[in-house]
Amino acid sequence: MRIAIAGFQHETNTFVATPTGLSDFERADSWPALLTGQEVLKTTQGMNLPIAGFAQAAASEDLLPILWCSAEPGGKVTDHAFETLAAQITTTLAKLGQLDAVYLDLHGAMVSQSHDDGEGELLERIRSVIGPDILLIASLDLHANISQKMVDQSDALTIFRTYPHLDMADTGARAYRMLAAIRSHGRPQKTWRQGDYLIPLHKQQTIAGPAKALYDAVGKFDGSDTRLAELALGFTAADIRDVGPSIVAYGKNSTDANTIADALLDRLNRAERDFDGPLLSAAEAVRKARLAPNGRPIVIADIQDNPGAGASSDTTWLLKELLRQDAPPTLLGLIHDPSLAAKAHQLGTGALFDASIGGKSPDSSPLRTQVKVLHLSDGLCTYTGEMYRGGIATLGPSAALQVVGTEVQIVVTSIRNQCLDLAQFRHFDLEPEHASVICVKSTAHFRADFEPIAQEVILCAAPGQFPCRLSSAHYTNLRPGVRIIPDR
Which of 224, 249, 376, 379 is most buried, by the most CB atoms less than 10 A from its CB? Predict the structure, then answer.
């Protein structure tokens, strides 16, 4: 088969005012900078990315890579960025000649300044170029907000089944298997269901709990032909009509597809109360960590200041509480503060200086204190954990600092980056396993690498730009009847 492939990924937090521009897609962060042509295949090869998994599974086919790009989650994608990248994909597609299929590595929660349903708009434009006969397959993130348009314009959608996302490449490979099955057996019947309640992201983790049980059920519908079920739990920081969990099902006929979808929707409905649960304030989280017995580290997740969900990664609520309660040996990362990182680089390792830490966003205020520069880096940090192994975190000029007179050490970066890999501390000569407390600005991805060394994980809901206490989010665009499950 001649298969055109492309990737255009963004997870949009509509509660963040700062837009996501073209330069954000052109710059490397957790993932590579914008790639075009054969560089798409060369650079992503072996990475845990959907497009890499698809390419490996489809190695015997004639793959025609167009582009691949992503930007760190943030505010709405500018019209300029969306139109530029969408046009690059559609224009190239029109020039490729006869195709058998198109594969897209998408997120599923992109919102642009003009389109609440970024992926639906992109799929519709691509369909208008390739026509109704060429197969159009896409893979999506577990946090996708799926629309009717996305289902209608595609022949099949495959979706991550783990959070932390350990199966991104596997999801791309499943997209190829579905594509090959459709070529052999014909297009399946498809159907789509939306859930009636929102699931906060910290409760979407699939290591244990209700989400794991749901995805175990999803996998049981995988067939040898075109029978397939997929579940997305939604990205709750998108204030749009289609936010929330949804199910897509494919079967040999409409009865088969509807039976699958209804069975999974029933499971989703019955799990609603299981997605409720307590969250602690910064003061409560630190107090609980201090009372823990000696042993392995306690991990405190600052879940509402997660840059991987669009937050600023610079709030100081938790840091201030650590100092107020005279915390034991503690590591905290990653604080996004380019000016502080630049000053540390200017003064050099070993320097003592009065610092203003974080608090540049409207959600908190800076911490003014004296710090010592422990370690400096250009910020090119090689991931070692399962989720991003083989990739490079681009943190920009960065520094490890110690708050003078305390046992609190922090990592400060120039580029926003979610703290989800032990390497993000070890790169700065800080050993997480030697700390009593580790504080990470992450919602769930940290669990894959940090939970194995942790005595306990504590979820802290200090104020931030990524709402996990959904009752405090100011939604105005939800579809009628959608419930925001209560927070205890």
Answer: 249
CA 146 to chain centre: 16
Distance between CA atoms of residues 387 and 205, nearest Å? 14
Task: Tell me if 158 sits within 8 A of 218, measured CB to CB.
Answer: no
Rg of the chain over Cα atoms, rounded to whole angstroms, equals 22
- Using a pLDDT cut of 70, give the percent of the chain over it: 99
The 8 Å CB, 24+ separation contacts for 343-348 are 344/371, 344/373, 344/376, 344/399, 344/401, 344/412, 345/376, 345/397, 345/399, 347/373, 348/373, 348/376
Neighbouring CB atoms inside 10 A of 17's CB total 12
> What burial letters (b/e) apply to 290-323, b meaning 16+ CB within 10 Å?
eebeeeebbbbbbbbbbbbbbbbbbbbbbbbbbb
Nearest in space to 313 (alpha carbons), one of 397, 207, 439, 450: 439
- The DSSP 8-state label assigned to residue 77 in this structure reads B
pLDDT digits (tens, 9 = 90+) for 78-90: 999 999 999 999 9
For residue 133, what is the DSSP state? T
- Give the distance, in angstroms, between the CA of residue 29 and the centroid of all CA atoms in the same chain: 13
Supply the DSSP string of 167-209, one letter for each residue. -HHHHHHHHHHHHHHHHHH-PPEEEEEE-SEE--GGG---SSS
Residues 9/12/16/22 CA torsion (nearest 10 deg): 30
Burial class (CB in 10 A: 0-12, 13-18, 19+), 243: buried
Closest by Cα among 449, 315, 433 to 393: 449
Q: Using an 8 Å Cβ cutoff, are 151 and 374 in contact?
A: no
Residue 33 is encoded by which pair of tokens? 């900078």
Where is pLDDT greater, at 390 or 195?
A: 195
Taking the C-alpha atoms of residue 273 and residue 210, their distance in angstroms, rounded to an integer, is 10
Tokens of 21: 């521009």
Would you call the peptide bond into 334 cis, given omega within 30 degrees of 0 as the criterion? yes
d(CA 19, CA 75): 4
CA distance 410 to 453: 19
Contact criterion met (CB below 8 Å) for 2 and 62: yes
Beta strands per DSSP E along 328-416: 330-336, 352-357, 367-377, 380-382, 392-394, 398-403, 408-413
Read off the pLDDT of residues 23-47 as tens digits, 9 standing for 90 and up: 999 999 889 999 999 999 999 999 9
How far apart, in whole angstroms, are the C-alpha atoms of residue 448 and residue 255?
39
Instruction: Write the pLDDT tens digit of every residue in 383-392.
Output: 999 999 878 9
DSSP E strands in 252-303: the ranges are: 298-302
